[in-house]
Amino acid sequence: MIKNLFRLPWTEFDNPNGWIEPTTYCNLSCPGCYRSIDKLSHKPEHQPLEELLRQIDWFVAHRNIHTLSISGGDPILYPDILEVVKYASNKKLKVLLYTNGLALNKKLLVALRDAGVTQFLLHIDRYQSRPDLNELTSVTELKQQFCDLFRTVEGTLLGFIQPLSSDHYQEDVASTSNIARRNIDVVSLIVFTLYREVCWEKNVKETIATNLTIKEVVDTFKYHDGFIPAAYLPSTDSSSDPTWLFGARIAAPQKLLGYFSPRLYRLSHMKYRKKTGKYLFISQKNILKTNQLLKFFYIKPVMKIWLRSVLLRVTGKVSNQRTIWFQTILLLRGPEKKGAEWDLCAGCPDRIIFTNRLLPSCILEDLKNKDNSKYKSVEHNDR
Predict the structure, then answer these.
(1) What is the DSSP string of 171-227?
(2) Strand partners of residue 337
(3) How far apart are CA 250 and CA 258, in angstroms?
(4) Could you tell me the pTM of the whole model?
């Protein structure tokens, strides 16, 4: 599956992403929540603002980050979320904010954009007991409502997280891909994450199937949309087993134009690295001018994309060059426990600082009461 793909060269201390969690408060209780918010034993809390700012300082100084991911809980429930975003933005970081969107309205969206949020990543799926989902509003219709909202507020981008189980993955891949492509002017990211069990309750284990493979998702996406993977991160156990698989499609809302080839993906990322000294994680804008493609005209798939875009303009289906966009697609296989050890992601971007250790955020609940001395220590001075 990964033959000829670009192996992203991210490491522990040269990595594009930092991860913080200001709060474990949430207004939903999603089954299988990686932070165990669905458990009766969960006790939500807010983190001190000063500690969060110290963590941001450490990520900037020691991990060479490009983007700060803010998750939780739902971080927009954190009382000082605007201060956290402003601080990160003033550090010249892109800010990726994870939310279920329940508490998000236009006024707050504008405030968070003005504070410096680059992109929102919304989790909406069939397993949530959401008050805004009912017999009149489907998952797809709710996602469309958010697309319409973001279209009225320029300057920030939208993404969707779509968890996948083996019971419904074909339908969920197709529906999420379709709505994202139709709204590619505002949706710049789709994350398909395969359900994996981490500290689940019995009722969740009986409800959600976790035996889906990343290859099954790739095959479904290829059949549905001609998906072409371009880059990957391997697992810690096997260099040939992808845990993060990236693709980038270029499209207008009316038509798919093509996908980045592995060669183009590598060239664009390494060009950014050479220019900035950092690895790219998320983009400020997802507009792609056709003349930018001419720089890579010697790559055959790029030539095809350029010709298709010209044909769209000639036939009058699009009016100008600014109607072509790119959209990042990530297939993410969660952690798998093998005996007493976890098979994780090599070069994991989603590490969190917990008790002065840099731990994988996805299995934090399993690690909280264990010896974590094998993970990197983190020391940050008082601000």
Answers:
(1) HHHHHHHHHHHHTTTTEEEEEEEE---SS--HHHHHHS-----HHHHHHHHHHHH--
(2) 342
(3) 5
(4) 0.96
